[in-house]
């Protein structure tokens, strides 16, 4: 496995050089992460709390840990002290728990709100109605220890590129419309996390600022 060559190959295909590459290192051994770190990767994506907890102390301090999987409220406390960005905030309940844990340790925790854009029921996320309900909830205005930095969405797992493009475009449109809304100071629409190994180029064409790429860097998971 030539991680350096794979990273170079992925970077060469980028349409937007400013788009952040999050290397999805879930299930991968520490040696692979250290290799990727050696070749310039600082942002790693994990989807299990237990795994991110185990790897975090073994990596350099300037490693940025992205929690990209579905996060259960009762596990927030384990990653609150060090997580760089939680991508999958898919409910007000989870956001309140992140705020609570941030308060306990006096740390503002950066998050993205996950929007359900796929036609698959298995994907998590807010729909636009739920999002507006949360924004209008009086409790939302009282959050002090979260920083909402943008949106995240996952497209349907399909060969139909038009459908994927349509779903990414809908998320970008929502992102742009939220930018025009008057929202609390802790909500800033800066990041749009969409695109994975199979569709990151379409995602970049549709305005993604952050892509999550695993198998194209580390090889397929065993």
Question: What's this, in brief?
Answer:
With 222 residues, this protein is of the alpha/beta class.
Order of helices and strands: HEHEHEHEHEHEHEHEH
Note the overall shape. globular
If you consult CATH, what is the topology?
TIM Barrel
CATH architecture: Alpha-Beta Barrel
Number of domains: 1
Q: Determine the structural class based on helices, strands and strand pairing.
A: alpha/beta
Let me know the average pLDDT.
95
- Say how many strands there are: 8
Largest sheet: 8 strands, parallel, barrel
| Fraction of helical residues | 25-40%
Residue stretches low in confidence (pLDDT < 50, at least 5 long) are: none
What share of the residues does DSSP label as strand, in percent?
15-25%
Distance between the termini: 13 Å
Structural notes for this entry:
- The chain is α/β, with parallel strands linked by helices.
- The chain is 37% helix and 21% strand.
- It is built from 9 helices and 8 strands.
- It has helices at 3-13, 30-38, 49-55, 76-79, 92-104, 128-136, 161-179, 200-205, 215-218, and strands spanning 20-24, 43-46, 64-67, 85-89, 109-114, 146-153, 187-196, 210-213.
- An 8-stranded parallel beta barrel has the order 1-2-3-4-5-6-7-8.
């Amino acid at each position: 496995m030539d991680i350096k060559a794979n990273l170079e190959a992925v970077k060469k295909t980028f349409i937007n050089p400013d788009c952040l590459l999050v290397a999805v290192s879930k299930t991968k051994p520490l040696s692979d992460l250290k290799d990727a770190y050696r070749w310039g990767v600082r942002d790693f994506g994990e989807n299990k709390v237990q795994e991110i907890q185990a790897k975090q102390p073994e990596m350099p301090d300037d490693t940025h840990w992205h929690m990209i999987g579905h996060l259960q409220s009762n596990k927030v406390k384990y990653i609150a002290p060090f997580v760089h960005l939680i991508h999958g905030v898919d409910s007000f309940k989870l956001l309140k728990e992140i705020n609570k844990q941030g308060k306990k340790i006096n740390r503002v925790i950066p998050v993205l709100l996950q929007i359900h854009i796929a036609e698959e029921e298995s994907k998590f996320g807010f729909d636009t109605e739920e999002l507006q309900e949360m924004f209008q909830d009086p409790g939302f205005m009282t959050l002090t220890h979260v920083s909402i930095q943008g949106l995240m969405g996952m497209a349907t797992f399909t060969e139909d590129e038009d459908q994927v493009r349509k779903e990414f475009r809908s998320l970008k449109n929502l992102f742009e419309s939220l930018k025009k809304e008057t929202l609390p100071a802790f909500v800033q629409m800066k990041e749009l996390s969409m695109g994975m190994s199979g569709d990151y180029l379409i995602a970049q064409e549709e305005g993604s600022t952050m892509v999550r790429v695993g198998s194209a860097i580390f090889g397929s998971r065993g």
